[in-house]
Amino acid sequence: MIYFIKFLYSFVLPPGLFILVMAGLVIWLWKRARKPAIVLLLVTLLLYISSTNLAGDVLIRSLEKQYPQPLTVQGDVIVVLGGGATEGTPDINGQGNLLGSAANRLLTAARLHEATGLPILFSGGQVFGDSGNEANIAQRQLLGLGIPAKDIFIENRSLNTQQNAVYTSKILKQHQLTKPILVTSAFHMPRAALEFQRAGMQTTAYPTDYLASEKLSLYAAKLSPSAGAISTTGTALKEYLGILALKLK
């Protein structure tokens, strides 16, 4: 019963509410203007499909499975890419926090450092005027986790993945580091690996922050619209467009 209620509830809030309104307009238009009704029906179906967890999971898994996580790693530095941060928000030892994806990436890097003893280079700047500087926040949090300052490098200027790769490459050359282990979200890894390759670096991919489970199951909630699902769909499409743009350069 609880899952049935959740399914119905998904049509009370956006995007489910908008889908219902658009479906109602299709019915209202059908006998008045058939062609506009058909166009609106197609748009409504596209919105519905893209806002389901089923579509989001299928799209994001197709990216996440491209680079399996290695059982062992060999390299001389752990390179972590940022994924967003807040500014001025309270933290245990200061202000500013990494967003979910960036925090997951940082946690993975810290665990890899503990297992390998390799230094960490965190790459990410202040992307927007009201967001935090990702690398500066990451440095503070890594120090708070007990990682020595000598094992932490930061690149705090980059605003996108391309700049992550270019600016990181310069820092690695300065420190004569040539075998980076690249840590980023699994869905982001295909595009990130291409950017680092274009910047002249061969990396060992270590994906983390998975959004889709390994096993894909089908149940009612997978077919209910949600803001989270449409965000996942949008994230996957953004990555594919970025990969396409890179390959067309």
Describe the protein in words.
The protein has 249 residues and is of the alpha/beta class. 51% of the residues lie in helices and 14% in strands. It has helices spanning 2-9, 16-30, 34-50, 53-64, 100-116, 134-144, 161-174, 189-198, 227-248; strands spanning 77-81, 85-91, 94-98, 120-123, 152-155, 180-185, 204-208. The strands form 2 sheets. The chain has a 5-stranded parallel β-sheet, sandwiched between helices. Strands 2-3 form a two-stranded antiparallel sheet. Helix 2 packs antiparallel against helix 3 and helix 8 packs parallel to helix 9 (227-248). It is elongated. 35% of the residues are buried. The mean pLDDT is 95. It comes from Paenibacillus jamilae. This is Membrane protein.
Gross morphology is elongated
Mean pLDDT over the residues: 95
E-strand count = 7
Walk across the major sheet and give the strand order.
Answer: 5-4-1-6-7
Q: Could you give the order of the helices and strands?
A: HHHHEEEHEHEHEHEH
**Share of residues in helices:** 40-55%
Major sheet summary line: 5 strands, parallel
Q: Number of helical segments?
A: 9
- As a whole number of angstroms, the C-alpha radius of gyration is 21 Å
Oligomer: single chain
* Class by SSE composition: alpha/beta
Strand content: 5-15%
Protein name: Membrane protein
Could you give a quick summary of the protein structure above?
The protein is an alpha/beta fold.
State the main characteristics.
single chain, 249 residues, alpha/beta, 9 helices, elongated, Membrane protein
